[in-house]
Amino acid sequence: MKMSNKVYDVLKWMAMLFLPALATLVRVVFSIWQIPYGEQISTTIMAIDAFLGACLGISSIQYKGGEEE
Q: Tens of pLDDT along 29-64?
């Protein structure tokens, strides 16, 4: 999977900072205000984050492998 450096950097920022923070915010705020499905929504966000992290890891390995050739 090839992507530009800018796309990679944005996705990495999302995976490392934005999505975990969003999941935490949803879990806490929904719990405080007794809004339903907070746990399910935050768990879904974290699942998306894990998938994105795996894709970025694969992309990074492929990029580094291409440099050695």
A: 999 999 999 999 999 999 999 999 999 999 889 888
Give the position of tokens 């996705």.
11
In DSSP notation, 1-69 reads ----HHHHHHHHHIIIIIHHHHHHHHHHHHHHTT-TTHHHHHHHHHHHHHHHHHHHHHHHHHHHHHHH-
Model's pTM, two decimal places? 0.88
Name the nearest CA neighbour of 21 among 44, 45, 37: 45
Rounded to whole angstroms, how far apart are CA atoms 8 and 2? 9
> CA gyration radius for the chain?
16
Round to the nearest angstrom and report the end-to-end CA distance of the chain.
17
